């Protein structure tokens, strides 16, 4: 497992790097072929292809248990060369090592084990997606279609540092905000200018004020750019904004408030507009998902680990599968932390226990 993990981590696979994402897919496909597992690929022109790995035959009312994972990372091309896979003590490091190449390795080995020994109560379907880190523009329809016919979905995002898994997640919306002003010489003809930067500053303060920690609503302007030169009133300013919420009803209310802030200008003459660039829906617990969690907790207990469910503010594809009606459990991958940073790590000692817990959970479904 560690050798395969090292190989995958050493391949760059940023979400927009189709060649890299497909290279990781090809390595996993090779593993599946070597273990006599049938694979199916759905090509995509812009993003990485979707890969299905089947153990047992699904379809015709024979609902599969889906083992899901994404193979893209947030890291740019060249990152793997700069800080390749390395092991220090009980931890392994490298881009995407926990989020979520370790989860993909775990899924691959569990599928191979069931292929070899049998015993699964339903067909197993590995689904390896390509663009989760940018809210799955190409994978979302594939995920939703797969989830609609699934008995359950087990998503191998990294397990919490505590060892717990994830039973609920926030919804998230990525917005692009554009403010338009008018360029003028800021010395010679100041009064003719309209500062887009002046206007976006007001909007940022107003947007951040929408944060309501108690309600689980957060607003973060994470990217900002604007202006033309130091001595020109800024004709344009742009921001990218991350909205998070807990309950589906909060979404429209939040967007309405954002729309009002975008519409109303403080700097006379400035105009603005916004658009949704990407979106995740919340992972909501259901009666059926609680029974999957119960099966997972019992399986882990059998192995000597007490595992509970946690709520996370992070978003993932599991929101889409839950929305599509599939009982879903997330964060069942090997234990790791500090995802999306250079300090990202995975606990190597958790690879086998988490794979066993997944296999035992499948047996209980
Ligand atoms: Zn992830």
Key structural traits:
365 residues, alpha/beta, six-stranded mixed sheet, four-stranded antiparallel sheet, 10 helices, binds zinc ion
In N-to-C order, the SSE pattern is: HHEEEHEEHEHEEEHEEHEHEHEEEH
How is the quaternary structure best described? single chain
* Protein structure class: alpha/beta
Ligand inventory: zinc ion
Strand content: 15-25%
Number of helices, where a helix is a run of at least 4 consecutive DSSP H or I residues:
10
Radius of gyration, CA atoms, in whole angstroms: 23 Å
Q: Numbering strands along the chain, what is their spatial order in the largest sheet?
A: 1-2-6-3-7-14
Estimate the helix proportion, in percent: 25-40%
* Average pLDDT, all residues: 97
What overall form do the CA principal axes indicate?
elongated
Counting DSSP E segments of at least 2 residues, the number of strands comes to 16
Would you identify the regions where 5 or more consecutive residues have pLDDT less than 50? none
Instruction: Measure the end-to-end span.
Output: 25 Å
Largest sheet: 6 strands, mixed
Description:
The strands form 4 sheets. The chain has a 6-stranded mixed β-sheet, with helices on both faces. It has a 4-stranded antiparallel β-sheet with strand order 4-5-16-15, covered by helices on one side. The chain has a 4-stranded antiparallel β-sheet with strand order 10-11-9-12. The chain has helices at residues 2-9, 18-34, 79-82, 97-117, 140-148, 196-208, 248-263, 287-302, 318-323, 351-364, and strands at residues 38-42, 50-55, 65-70, 86-88, 91-93, 124-129, 152-155, 165-169, 171-180, 218-226, 236-245, 271-280, 309-312, 328-329, 336-337, 345-347. It is α/β, with parallel strands linked by helices and 365 residues long. It contains 10 helices and 16 strands. A hairpin with a 7-residue loop joins strand 1 and strand 2. The chain starts with a helix and ends with a helix. The site of zinc ion has 6 residues, from helix 4.
């Amino acid at each position: 497992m560690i050798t395969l993990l090292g190989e995958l981590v050493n391949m760059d696979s940023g979400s927009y790097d189709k060649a890299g994402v497909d290279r990781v897919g090809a390595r996993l496909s090779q593993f599946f072929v070597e273990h006599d597992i049938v694979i199916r690929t759905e090509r995509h022109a812009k993003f990485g292809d979707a890969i299905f790995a089947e153990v047992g035959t699904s379809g015709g009312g024979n609902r599969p248990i889906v083992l899901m994972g994404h193979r893209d990372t947030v890291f740019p091309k060249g990152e793997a060369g700069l800080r390749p896979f390395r092991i220090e003590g009980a931890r392994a490091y490298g881009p995407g090592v926990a989020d979520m190449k370790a989860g993909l390795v775990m899924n691959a080995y569990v599928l191979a084990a069931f292929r070899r020994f049998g015993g699964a109560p339903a067909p197993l379907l590995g689904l390896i997606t390509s663009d989760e880190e940018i809210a799955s523009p190409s994978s979302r329809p594939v995920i939703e279609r797969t989830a609609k016919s699934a008995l359950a979905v087990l998503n191998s995002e990294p397990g919490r540092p505590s060892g717990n898994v994830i039973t609920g997640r926030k919804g998230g919306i990525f917005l692009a905000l554009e403010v338009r002003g008018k360029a003028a010489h800021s010395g010679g003809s100041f009064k003719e200018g309209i500062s887009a930067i002046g206007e976006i500053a007001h909007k940022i303060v107003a947007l951040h004020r929408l944060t309501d920690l108690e309600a689980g609503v957060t607003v973060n302007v994470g990217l900002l750019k604007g202006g033309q030169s130091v001595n020109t009133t800024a004709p344009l300013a742009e921001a990218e904004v991350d909205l998070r919420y807990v309950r589906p009803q909060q979404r429209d209310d939040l967007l309405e408030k954002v729309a009002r802030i975008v519409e109303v200008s403080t700097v006379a003459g400035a105009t603005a507009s916004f658009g949704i660039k990407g979106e995740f829906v919340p992972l909501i617990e259901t009666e059926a998902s609680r029974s999957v969690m119960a099966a997972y907790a019992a399986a882990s207990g059998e192995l000597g680990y007490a595992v509970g469910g946690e709520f996370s503010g992070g978003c993932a594809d599991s929101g889409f599968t839950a929305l599509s009606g599939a009982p879903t459990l997330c964060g069942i991958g090997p234990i790791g932390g500090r995802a999306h940073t250079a300090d990202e790590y995975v606990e190597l000692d958790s690879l086998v226990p988490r794979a066993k817990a997944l296999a035992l959970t499948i047996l209980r479904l």
